[in-house]
Specification:
By secondary structure, this protein is mostly helical. Helix content is 63%, strand content 1%.
Length: 445
């Protein structure tokens, strides 16, 4: 239509998240959201809304001491919308009403949930809806009943606690209802297992969840390459993170040291899962050793699965880079895995995402160091946590001034929409080269 400006799907997603953050900040400024006598200025509300919509969990304010039930409900809704994606929810509504999606709706939702073909989108969307409802409802029921029967909480409060943390877990956000997050439940096997399961499922990614549901009962050899890579690498990272935390923190008096053997194991497992963009903690993150901090920074940077509720460069990106390095070391002409050859474009895209992400985190860390007195190790931890939309913190979030908080908000936003998505939103047209240059080789290494 003449005079009509087409909106690129990536730009639409970016603008939708920005609009949701602005709306959330306005709601969190209203008196019904925070406790009486606790001031919440616009910058604090904007930071909290950004953290919620990007499903991060970082907060300048003590969540338990600042927000009342109304504010916590707002946070829960913002996290749910941010986790599933504004475009996904809009498409689900359209699908339910008309049982038909148009080309633009398929394009917008496909960019958010990672569907690779229009024919797959309806299946992925239904899987998103069913999986989200089933996981969150089941987790709520289990946690609510457990807190009621085991911990003596009133039924209504136990159910609210279960619902809030179930939504946060599946959407990989780290907001908790206590000032110390989940430290009080470090020895509780049900809380640890249920929360961890929600985090892992939410971090696999919607295309993987849809395929696992569709191919249930079949052998893993029948899975697609994407699902094989996501499940394999995610499992390996969880095991590696758990073992690293267990070994490095075993005798640390501030974390695992005072715990019994079984509690050490489940605490290490929880901290091995959480850096995959969840943000919950059952031990004091500020008391971790520097070695464990390095491990967590690496896990947070890698992040979760593609098209998931988490962030980071994604496990498939990491897997492609490792496979490319291995192929180069072996002198192989191409990158192969599970009997399949990876296109060179996938390797270039993975390299681009990683290099841009490293540059962004490095630049942000430098700026944060220039505007705050926070030491390098804790500044880098905070920056990677924000970029990976993790939410883990060593307790220095409130130590930054307005400039530092602005940098963290930008990192959270870019970490949620993704460097590649943001780049596509800014560059709407691609140019085809009609010629090429002669080949030449510089010295490398």
């Amino acid at each position: 239509m003449a005079g009509r400006v087409a909106l690129h799907p990536a730009r639409a997603v970016t603008l939708a998240f920005g609009a949701l953050i602005a709306l959330g900040a306005l709601l969190l400024r209203l008196p019904f959201t925070h406790r009486r006598g606790v001031p919440v200025d616009l910058p604090a509300a904007l930071f909290t809304a950004t953290s919620a919509v990007t499903v991060t969990g970082l907060s300048r304010l003590d969540v338990a001491a600042t927000w009342n039930r109304g504010g916590l409900v707002v946070l829960l809704v913002l996290v749910q919308l941010g986790g599933l994606g504004v475009m996904t929810l809009a498409s689900l509504v359209a699908l339910a009403l008309s049982n038909r999606l148009g080309i633009r709706a398929r394009s917008l939702a496909g960019g958010e949930v990672g569907a690779v073909a229009p024919g797959e989108l309806r299946r992925v969307l239904r899987a998103v809806a069913v999986c989200s409802v089933v996981v969150e409802v089941c987790s709520t029921a289990i946690l609510g009943v457990w807190l009621w029967l085991r911990h003596g909480e009133a039924p209504a409060e136990a159910l609210w606690w279960g619902a809030f943390h179930s939504v946060m877990a599946f959407n990989n956000a780290g907001f908790g209802l206590a000032s110390d997050n989940l430290v009080a439940y470090v020895g509780d096997p049900v809380v640890n297992v249920v929360i961890s399961a929600g985090v892992v499922l939410g971090g696999l990614g919607f295309p993987v969840i849809a395929e696992l549901w569709r191919t249930r009962g079949r052998r893993p050899g029948r899975w697609s390459l994407h699902t094989k890579l996501t499940v394999t690498v995610s499992g390996a990272l969880i095991v590696a993170g758990t073992c690293a935390v267990l070994l490095l923190e075993w005798a640390n008096p501030g974390t695992l040291g005072p715990l019994g053997v079984l509690d050490k194991l489940q605490a290490a497992m929880f901290q091995g899962v959480s850096p995959r963009t969840a943000g919950f903690n059952t031990v004091d993150i500020g008391a971790l050793t520097e070695e464990t901090g390095v491990v967590m920074v690496l896990l947070m940077f890698i992040g979760s699965g593609a098209a998931s509720t988490g962030g980071g460069i994604r496990v498939t990106t990491f897997a492609v880079l490792v496979l490319a390095c291995w192929a180069e070391l072996r002198g192989e002409p191409s990158v192969t895995v599970f009997g399949r050859r990876l296109p060179s474009a996938v390797v270039r895209q993975s390299l681009t995402v990683t290099v841009l992400s490293i540059g962004l985190v490095g630049l942000a860390t430098t700026v944060l160091l220039a505007v705050s007195p926070v030491p390098l190790d804790r500044t880098l931890f905070e920056a990677v946590s924000a970029f990976g939309t993790v939410g883990l913190s060593t307790g220095v979030t409130a130590s930054f001034d307005w400039r530092g908080h602005g940098v963290l908000m930008l990192l959270m936003f870019l970490g949620r929409v993704g460097p590649a998505t943001l780049g596509a939103a800014l560059v709407l047209r691609r140019r085809a080269r009609l010629y090429d240059y002669p080949e030449d080789r510089p010295l490398v290494g």
